[in-house]
Amino acid sequence: MSLMGSPFAADSSRRRWLQGLARGFFLSALSGLSACAVRRDRSGQKETRVAPEYLAKTDIDRIFDNSREEIMISLFLLAEKLYRRNPREWRKAAASLEEALGRLKRFRDAAPQGIGEAKESAAILLAFTPNYAFDRVAAFLYGLLSMVDAAYEHREEFFFLDSLEAQKLYNCARNVEIAAWKLAEMKNEAGESFLLSNALSANARNLSFEREFGKIIALLDFVARVVEDRNGRAINRVAQSLATAVFLPVGFLK
Per-residue pLDDT tens for 133-174? Predict the structure, then answer.
C-alpha cells in the first residue's frame, strides 16, 4: 500500500484534512479575539486594549501557534492511550502512568531512559526493536514529539519574522503515516504487536488511535500547504509503499 493510497490519504483522510483546516481557522480566530480586551474607562466610554505581543503576530503566525498546540495535545493523548493499553511499558521506568506522562511532557529537557542520542525516526524505530528492554511507548512518542518539534523549528510561539519550512512539515506528515502503520502492523517473533493500539475484533472496534493520527497528519499537511504558498517554494512530494517506506528527514533538513 502506498502513502498516497493509505487509509490516511483516501476519502476519510480528506474529511479529516477539512476538519483540521476548519479547526485551525477556528482556533486562529479565538486566538485573535483573546489578544484584545474591551473595557470601559471612568467616563463610561469603551476602550480596546491589545496585548503588545500580538502586535508582532500575523494570522499565519497564529495558525502556526494553534496547529502546533493541537498536534502536541493529540500526541500526549496518544501517549496516554498507549500507556493504558500497554501498562507494562510505563511500569518499566515510572511509579505511575501520570509520572510517565509527565516525563514525556518534559521531552525537551531529557530523553527517556534507554533512548541515548536517538531522536525522531531513530527513536521511533527503537519501539519496534525486538531486544529493546526499555519503555517502548516513551521511545515511540519521544520520536514523534522531537520530530514535530523539529518541523516547527523548535519554537512554541511564532511572530512576524519567524518562518517554517514546508518540506519539513510535509516530511513530518509522511513520517507520522509511517509511524502509525508500524504501530498497527509491526509484530514480534511470536506474532504479537509490539504495542497494542486500535482494536478490531468481533467484540470490540476502537479506532481512536487512527483518528488522532489522522488529525495530526491533516494539520501538518495544511500548515505545509500554507507555508508553501507563503514562501513560493514547491514541496517535493514523494510516494512510497507503507510496508517498505523509509522515514524522511526532518530535523536534518536545512
Answer: 999 999 999 999 999 999 999 999 999 878 899 999 999 999
- Cβ–Cβ under 8 Å, residues 221 and 58: no
The whole-model pTM stands at 0.79
Beta pairing class for 46-50 and 199-200? unpaired
133, with CB counted inside 10 A (0-12, 13-18, 19+), is exposed
Instruction: Please tell me the least confidently modeled range out of 134-138, 174-178, 249-253.
Output: 249-253
Considering only CA atoms, which of 172, 173, 175, 183 is closest in space to residue 209?
Answer: 183
Q: Which ranges of the chain does DSSP label H, i.e. alpha helix? A: 11-34, 59-85, 87-90, 97-105, 120-126, 136-151, 166-185, 208-231
Quick: pLDDT tens for 18-49: 455 545 544 544 444 455 555 655 565 655 55
Distances (CA, A) of 209 to 24, 99, 183, 214, 217: 20, 22, 10, 9, 12
Residue 56 Ramachandran class (φ > 0 left, ψ -120 to 50 alpha, else beta): alpha
The phi, psi pair for 54, rounded to 5°, reads: -80, -10
All residues at 6 or more sequence positions from 24 whose CB lies less than 8 Å from its CB, including other chains:
63, 66, 67, 70, 219, 222, 223
Could you count the other beta carbons within 10 Å of the beta carbon of residue 189?
6
The separation between CA 97 and the C-alpha centre of its own chain, rounded to angstroms, equals: 21
